[in-house]
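WARN no homologs supplied; continuing
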Amino acid sequence: MEDAPLPTIELTPKKLIPEILEIKQNNKSYKLLIEIEEFIMRFKIIEDDPFLGTYSRIFTLKEIKELHHVFSMFNSFKEFLDYLRALDSKKKIEIKQTEDYISIILTVEYLLKHNIIEINLTQEDMNYKLISKQLKKEINLLNEKINDMEIKYKYIIIKQKEDNTNLIEENSNIKQRLNILEKENKKIKEKFNECITYINLIKNKNNEKNNNEIVNNNMINSSIMDIGEFDMIKIAISERMKKEIKKIKKLYQATINGAEAFYFHMRCDNIPNTLILIKSEGNRRFGGFTSECWESNLKSKYDKNAFLFSLDKKKIYNVKNDNYSICCYTSSGPCFGKGNTIRIGKNILLEKGLKTYESYSQC
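OK structure emitted
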C-alpha cells in the first residue's frame, strides 16, 4: 500500500479559507467543514437539513498531534489539512453516526500498517425553530422601540424648532440690550477718560509745582547732585556760555514724568541749555550739558559748548568732534557723542537701555 502524501513544511497563516470535503457514506452525503483560525482547527459536519443539528469540534495543533503518533510530525495545520485532502481523495475517510455524536474515522496508511483514528464530533443542540421565533419576537420589540424613537425624535425636532424660534427672539433682544449698553459704556468711558485727563493735568501741575522750582546761583533741587558738585558744573557752563546762570527749571524726571523716550522729547524738545543728570544702578553719577535743543529726528548736532562730566571723579570731559556733540533719536532719550558715549534707551527703567563709554577716540 502507498503511504498518504506528506506535504512540505510551510508557515501557518493566521487564517485560511475554509475547506469543505464532501464525503459519501452509505448513499448519504456529508459535508465536512474544516476552518483554521490562528492556533485552532475547527471540524464541522454540515447536515442537509439544518434543523437536524450540526456536529462540531475544535482542536489545537497540540491536540491533533496527540490523536496519533502519525500526526506528531505535522508542524502546521496546513500540513494536516493537506493530509486530509489526500485521504479524502483515496476514500480513506469514513463517517459513522450515533444518536449523540458523529465519528470521523481516518484510515491511515503509514509504514505499511493500518491505523484507525477517530475524531468524535459532538452534536450542537440547536432548536432553530425556537431561535427563529425568539428572533421574530426580538425584531418586533425592536420595531416598537424604533417607532417610539421616531415619535420622540419628531417631538424633539418640533421642540427644537420652537426653542430655536425663542432663542432667535431672545438673541435679538439681547443684541438690542447690548447695543444700548455699548452706547452707555462708551459715554462712561468718555467721562472716565475726561476724569483721568483732568486728574493727570492736576497731577502734572502739582509735579511741576513741586519739581520745577526756580533757584538762584547757589541752589539746586536734585537727588543726584548736591550744591557743592553743582558749583563745578556752573563754572564749566559759565566758561563756555560766557555768562552766569540766572535760574534753573526742572523739565523732566524719569521716575515722575515717565521713563519712555517719548516723555523726554515731549518735555525737553526745542529747549536750549539743558543739563542731563544720570544715576546708574551701581550708583555711578554722571551726565552732560548742551546749549543746543533736543529734537525728535535722526540728526546729530554741532555744539562747541557741550561737555560731559563725572560727579564721582569730579571731572569734566570736553568734546573732540563738535559735529556729534549730541544725537537726536526719536526712539531714544538724550545721547551724547559719535558712537553714543552716553545713550539713554527707549525706556530706561524697564529696558535698562543706558549705554556709556568712558573713552571714545573720536568724541
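Residues 19-129 form a domain with the Dna Repair Protein Xrcc4; Chain: A, domain 1 fold (CATH 2.170.210.20).
OK
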